[in-house]
Write a structure and sequence with these properties.
The structure holds two protein chains of two kinds. Chain A is mostly beta strands. Chain A is built from no helices and nine strands. Chain A is globular and about 40 Å long. In chain B, strands 2, 4, 5, 6, 9, 10 and 11 form a seven-stranded mixed sheet that branches. Chain B has a four-stranded antiparallel sheet with strand order 1-3-8-7, with no helix packed on it. The chains are: A mainly beta, B mainly beta.
Chain lengths: 109, 114
Amino acid sequence: DAKTTQPTSMDCAEGRAANLPCNHSTISGNEYVYWYRQIHSQGPQYIIHGLKNNETNEMASLIITEDRKSSTLILPHATLRDTAVYYCISHSGNTPLVFGKGTRLSVIA
Amino acid sequence: SQTIHQWPATLVQPVGSPLSLECTVEGTSNPNLYWYRQAAGRGLQLLFYSVGIGQISSEVPQNLSASRPQDRQFILSSKKLLLSDSGFYLCAWSLGGGQIYEQYFGPGTRLTVT
């Protein structure tokens, strides 16, 4: 699986959009981009995934650049409950996901 | 719907004592099963995964072992705990076969070795 690079931490004001970047410059053609988050003292929670096209669900939007070397997770209206560590993972096949250190997002009132 | 259970939720054990953590999944068949550990302030470390009964892959050499005696049951064990075994243990499952899209995590067991 390709290595991903994320900022260590970010702050976001409550009610504003949170834009979390991820670099995956060595991603291969069959690798998906996954986003998970982990709220303190809980297990990670799946958010969204994509291959080439932008994706949106009830939790977030995923914007993948045309060259697929980077992506951005967007939480359109961040709330205090969105404070968590966000993991970006590039992966293919049926082997387990490998989690890096992620980005610690703090939503501030 | 599928649910994943882990117990106990918290555990305090002395060094050198044995360990058994259990994970069960309901509402699905032939899942892939996983054990992860998260030490305090650290990232998630994959320990074991299983694609079927009796099939265990170990990712990290250590004094822990895993077993899958039934399709939806995954057990993490140790004969003698070390201080370094303290951490947050998470069990997860995914649909078996093919591309993994989502891994679903249980509530976790917080283990403190004293």
